[in-house]
Amino acid sequence: MPRNRNIVNAQLMNTKSTPAPAGDLHPLAAKSMSGAEVIVQVLADEGVDVMFGYSGGAILPVYDAVFRYNATHPNDDGSEPLPLIVPANEQGAGFMAAGYARASGKVGVAVVTSGPGATNMVTPVRDSMADSIPMVVICGQVGVAAIGSDAFQEAPVSTIMGACAKHVFLVTDASVLEATLRTAFEIARSGRPGPVVVDVPKDVQNTALTFAGQGQLPIPGYRARLRNVQSAQLDDAGCASFFDALAQARRPLIYAGGGVIASGAAEALRDFVADFGLPVTTTLMGLGAFDTTDPLALHFLGMHGTAYANYAVEDCDFVLTLGARFDDRVAGVPDKFAPRAKFIAQVDIDPAEIGKVKAVDWHHIGDLRRTLERLREYGAAHGIHPRQDGRYAAWHAHIAELKRVHALNYDHDSELIQPYAVIEAINRITDGHAIISTGVGQHQMWAAQYFDYRAPRHWLSSGSMGTMGFGLPAAIGAQFARRDATVIDIDGDGSIRMNLGELETVTTYGLPVKIVLLNNRGDGMVRQWQKLFFKGRFASSDKSLHTKDFIKAVQADGFTWARRLERKEELADTIAEFLAFEGPAFLEVMIDPDAGVYPMVGPGMSYAQMITGDFIASRQRAAGDETLRNDMF
Amino acid sequence: MNAVTQHTLTIMLQNETGALVRVAGLFASRSYNIDSLNVAATADPAISKLVLSIRGDDQAVVQIVRQTRKLIDVLEVSHQATAD
């Protein structure tokens, strides 16, 4: 281990506020405001156009300031500039903010009260951290003097959130409230994005302050590291060693993750592939980073990824990892991931992801979009054009054959409605342009597999945390981000029940959200695992969801279009009518309760051991086939 | 080469509410056991100096150093390996 004793850098250690730079003064600079008014003004300055939250004692000053701001600053059409959308539960507000952020790329904002309001927000905060989603959560807190006294609705939010968020601020000094809020947005959206929690005691909200209109907290360590990463330019030697390795490869593959979407690098990736001809598989989080309908697209890889993507990973001899982290759902057995790859390259903005799970041969820590553009420039300048040279012709033919032979498939002859057919029917109409949110479980995987994703930010799903109940509130948030888009929540009966109260939020705000409930009467993914790994002992999964009448439930919440589909022959017409309805609509589809998710790479299995089920061709079964010899590579 | 040895990390930390808890919590949540921890004030009241020791192989220590550098109020992390 090399000794690495850093010399303390005087500039880095400067934690004192820097004097505000001379420049355009904020029109409200020097105005007297309460802490709550300062919060609302900073939100407005940061471009926030919707907030999600539930009120309560310790946040009431902020809510009142929002009310007054909206009353005095109406938009030209009379609407509120800062609408505050009220969920049934704070967890719903958190996932609405996350759905808004995922669909727009902007920072999602939630504002909740102290104690239970804040603790209900823990799950969305951790979920957003795990999926690198930018969010600012403002929590009310008991007064500064009451902190630590077990006061009414008190919770140690900075301690709890500190363990789950990118950062948490507890503002006990009202004079830094304004700078803290602004800094929270900076941290949430910069570098690897994530959620930032600002805990604001009620007396701080009520403190009389003077608005500065500018200024941030000194966070010299974070900013210095961020500057290093953002300014990191891949040098000629780095480009050269990358292309030298690529020149040795015959079967290169790109493995692209959510980082491509977070960094706005999808277009750069498309151009890179156009130039160099590397096929692309994405992670679940990366769906939409590369048009899944492209001939070189392999859809997504991993535990329930397409068989052809997983086989391509088995076959490739070079991997370019872009904003992905060899998560256990992708590389369950890291040593056996891409076993024939002689060279693995990785680009990420987070230094901690380099080599965390799997050692790589080449890496660059920096912005993805700029790195891809830099590689393209270098390739162009040095006459590197393997695609035009036909260098990968055999590999491309192999990829096309994998996609043909090992395509997703299911039981088309069953009398029962197959969930895959439902997704396909919707996809035929939406054509990869709808925004899809999901809960967690089988329906989530089916939605990932059977929809086309032509562009980033159309796939909203709790990837890392796997939070059931995500789909409905995320769809609500997404609809606020993309008011004209078709937003569809593909949900399961177990998942939707977790945040069922948000049905009423859809109708309260008149959102044209479409909800598809794939009902298999129980927790299908749990049953699938119990069948495979617990000899069919359905512990707990056979107990609930047998009696619930979802149609009555949604009608009670004001859905006028609510229908249960039980007959296969009515599928196409019903879905067309459902999607054509202008307002909120709810379609429950009673699906084959035994429908499974395939392919499946079980925990601890390599891709070679993937189970493909009864309807997708497996290589193991076709092992004798001359065209798919094992010694092909 | 990949042996478990004692490592000493020196962390310069902005003296913010909860900053120490975030450092300790990071080590705990990533399954690193802190063998010793010393926190001291510095000439600058806004900065604390943490010296902590952990056991781990090189890769584990590199990983926790990188994770520590992701904490917002961490100014610097330096690290010396100490042979047992």
TrEMBL record, chain B:
Keywords (alphabetical) are: Amino-acid biosynthesis, Branched-chain amino acid biosynthesis, Transferase
Catalytic reactions on record:
2 pyruvate + H(+) = (2S)-2-acetolactate + CO2
Molecular function terms, GO-annotated: acetolactate synthase activity; acetolactate synthase regulator activity
One BP annotation, GO: isoleucine biosynthetic process
* Pathway, per record: Amino-acid biosynthesis; L-valine biosynthesis; L-valine from pyruvate: step 1/4; Amino-acid biosynthesis; L-isoleucine biosynthesis; L-isoleucine from 2-oxobutanoate: step 1/4
Which residue intervals define the domain ACT in the entry? 8-84
CDD domains documented for this protein:
ACT_AHAS
Primary role: Catalyzes the conversion of 2 pyruvate molecules into acetolactate in the first common step of the biosynthetic pathway of the branched-amino acids such as leucine, isoleucine, and valine.
**Which named protein is this?**
Acetolactate synthase small subunit
Protein source organism: Rhodanobacter fulvus Jip2
